[in-house]
Amino acid sequence: MTKETEVWTDEQIQDVKNRIMQAMEQVIDPELGIDIVNLGLVYEVNVFNGGYCEMKITLTTMGCPLADVITEDILNAMKTVPEITETDVKLVWYPAWDTSRMSRYARIALGIR
Protein backbone atom coordinates (compact mmCIF):
# COMPACT_ATOMS: atom_id res chain seq x y z
CA MET A 1 0.00 0.00 0.00
CA THR A 2 1.45 3.39 -0.95
CA LYS A 3 1.28 6.38 1.32
CA GLU A 4 -1.42 7.90 -0.91
CA THR A 5 -3.70 4.85 -0.63
CA GLU A 6 -2.99 3.99 3.01
CA VAL A 7 -6.11 4.21 5.17
CA TRP A 8 -5.53 5.59 8.65
CA THR A 9 -7.55 4.52 11.66
CA ASP A 10 -9.35 7.09 13.78
CA GLU A 11 -6.67 6.60 16.44
CA GLN A 12 -3.88 7.28 13.94
CA ILE A 13 -5.63 10.42 12.70
CA GLN A 14 -6.08 11.64 16.28
CA ASP A 15 -2.39 10.96 17.01
CA VAL A 16 -1.35 12.96 13.94
CA LYS A 17 -3.71 15.81 14.93
CA ASN A 18 -2.19 15.86 18.44
CA ARG A 19 1.31 16.12 16.99
CA ILE A 20 0.15 18.86 14.62
CA MET A 21 -1.16 20.86 17.57
CA GLN A 22 2.15 20.33 19.38
CA ALA A 23 3.94 21.65 16.29
CA MET A 24 1.60 24.66 16.20
CA GLU A 25 2.65 25.51 19.76
CA GLN A 26 6.01 26.42 18.19
CA VAL A 27 4.36 29.06 15.97
CA ILE A 28 4.57 32.33 17.87
CA ASP A 29 2.48 35.40 17.12
CA PRO A 30 5.27 37.95 16.52
CA GLU A 31 3.36 40.84 18.09
CA LEU A 32 2.09 39.08 21.21
CA GLY A 33 4.89 36.57 21.80
CA ILE A 34 2.43 33.73 22.51
CA ASP A 35 1.88 30.63 20.37
CA ILE A 36 -1.16 30.43 18.10
CA VAL A 37 -2.62 27.43 19.96
CA ASN A 38 -2.75 29.18 23.33
CA LEU A 39 -4.06 32.32 21.67
CA GLY A 40 -6.93 30.25 20.29
CA LEU A 41 -6.15 31.10 16.67
CA VAL A 42 -6.31 27.50 15.41
CA TYR A 43 -9.98 26.83 14.73
CA GLU A 44 -9.90 23.48 12.96
CA VAL A 45 -7.44 20.81 11.82
CA ASN A 46 -8.51 18.17 9.31
CA VAL A 47 -6.20 15.32 8.36
CA PHE A 48 -6.83 13.12 5.34
CA ASN A 49 -5.38 9.81 4.17
CA GLY A 50 -2.30 10.36 2.07
CA GLY A 51 -0.93 13.11 4.31
CA TYR A 52 -3.04 16.14 3.35
CA CYS A 53 -3.86 18.58 6.14
CA GLU A 54 -6.33 21.44 5.99
CA MET A 55 -6.02 23.93 8.81
CA LYS A 56 -8.42 26.78 9.53
CA ILE A 57 -6.94 29.62 11.52
CA THR A 58 -7.82 33.18 12.29
CA LEU A 59 -5.85 36.20 13.43
CA THR A 60 -6.39 38.55 16.35
CA THR A 61 -7.33 41.38 13.97
CA MET A 62 -8.64 41.33 10.42
CA GLY A 63 -5.98 43.72 9.15
CA CYS A 64 -3.06 41.89 10.78
CA PRO A 65 0.02 42.65 8.65
CA LEU A 66 1.74 39.45 9.81
CA ALA A 67 -0.63 36.92 8.19
CA ASP A 68 2.02 35.83 5.68
CA VAL A 69 4.67 35.46 8.39
CA ILE A 70 2.39 33.32 10.57
CA THR A 71 1.31 31.20 7.60
CA GLU A 72 4.94 30.59 6.61
CA ASP A 73 5.79 29.66 10.21
CA ILE A 74 2.88 27.18 10.21
CA LEU A 75 4.10 25.56 6.99
CA ASN A 76 7.61 25.27 8.41
CA ALA A 77 6.32 23.77 11.68
CA MET A 78 4.28 21.21 9.74
CA LYS A 79 7.53 19.81 8.32
CA THR A 80 8.12 18.27 11.76
CA VAL A 81 5.07 16.00 11.32
CA PRO A 82 6.36 13.34 8.91
CA GLU A 83 2.93 11.94 8.01
CA ILE A 84 1.84 15.28 6.55
CA THR A 85 2.93 15.82 2.95
CA GLU A 86 0.79 18.85 2.08
CA THR A 87 -0.76 21.58 4.20
CA ASP A 88 -3.40 24.09 3.20
CA VAL A 89 -3.78 26.99 5.64
CA LYS A 90 -7.14 28.71 5.31
CA LEU A 91 -7.63 32.06 6.97
CA VAL A 92 -11.17 32.44 8.33
CA TRP A 93 -12.92 35.29 10.11
CA TYR A 94 -15.97 33.51 11.48
CA PRO A 95 -16.46 33.11 14.30
CA ALA A 96 -14.62 36.28 15.10
CA TRP A 97 -11.69 35.81 17.48
CA ASP A 98 -11.88 37.33 20.94
CA THR A 99 -9.96 36.91 24.17
CA SER A 100 -12.34 34.22 25.43
CA ARG A 101 -10.60 31.78 23.03
CA MET A 102 -7.27 32.21 24.83
CA SER A 103 -5.93 29.58 27.21
CA ARG A 104 -5.34 30.35 30.86
CA TYR A 105 -1.60 30.39 30.13
CA ALA A 106 -2.03 33.07 27.43
CA ARG A 107 -4.29 35.17 29.65
CA ILE A 108 -1.77 35.11 32.49
CA ALA A 109 1.17 35.84 30.15
CA LEU A 110 -0.64 38.85 28.68
CA GLY A 111 -2.13 40.04 31.97
CA ILE A 112 -5.74 39.52 30.90
CA ARG A 113 -8.33 38.47 33.46
From TrEMBL:
Domain MIP18 family-like positions: 18-90
Protein's name in the database: Metal-sulfur cluster biosynthetic enzyme
Superkingdom of origin: Bacteria
Source organism: Alkalibacterium pelagium
SUPFAM superfamilies: Fe-S cluster assembly (FSCA) domain-like
